[in-house]
Structures are given as structure tokens and as C-alpha cells.
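Progress report, Aim 2. The chain analyzed during this reporting quarter is listed below.
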Amino acid sequence: MAGLGAYSVYIQGDPPVYMKQNHLQLPLLLRYQAYGWGIGKDDQGKYIALILVHTDETTARENVNILRRRISETWDVDRRNMPYKEVLESEEIRTDGRALLAKLRVRIPLKWLEWINEIY
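Predicted C-alpha cells for the chain:
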């Protein structure tokens, strides 16, 4: 998370066994071993920092594509029929070995926690 510049971090070693029901039939994220999220601020503003740690690099890379697709195609972030892509100002998603690292800049203040709960 330090590589993302996050200054407040929550890390969980036991990831959820399941994800919420997917009414749009979008692919679910592949299994990961641990996850963490936090907040950061840089010269472009505030952002959500996200890390998913996988058993191998291939799974991490596959989850980059799945996460991007879920962001571009998923709705109902705040129960007002708003797509994720309208909540986010920008996204930077990449891998570093077995880790998926993301910086997600949110347009709507305080919606990030609700969003992060939905994306998992």
C-alpha cells in the first residue's frame, strides 16, 4: 500500500468467500488471498487505494481486466441507478507480481466506502 501512497489503510487477511449476487452477469473477481484498502492524497487529489493479493501473477493480471469491466458495466452504486464509471473520476489499475494495485479517484465525496463494499 505504501507504493500507492495511501496514508490510511485497512488490510484483511481472510478475504470474503463469496461476492454479492451479480444481476448483470458480469464476471466475478477471481479468488484472492488477502485484500486491503485505504485513502490517499497526491497532487491530483484524494483517491481510494486498493490491493488484492493473489496466489500467482496470472490471476492478478486477469483480475485487472475483470475489475475494469466491472467498473465500466456495473450500476447501482448508491441505489440511485448510477454506474460506477460515473462515480469514478479516474482509475489506475495495475499489477506488481501477485498483487493487483489500484488508485480510484471518486467524484462523489463519501461514496467510496459504499462503492468499495459493492465491488468486493
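Residues 47 and 65 are 20 Å apart (CA to CA). Residues 57-73 form the longest helix (17 residues). These observations will guide the mutagenesis work planned for the next reporting period.
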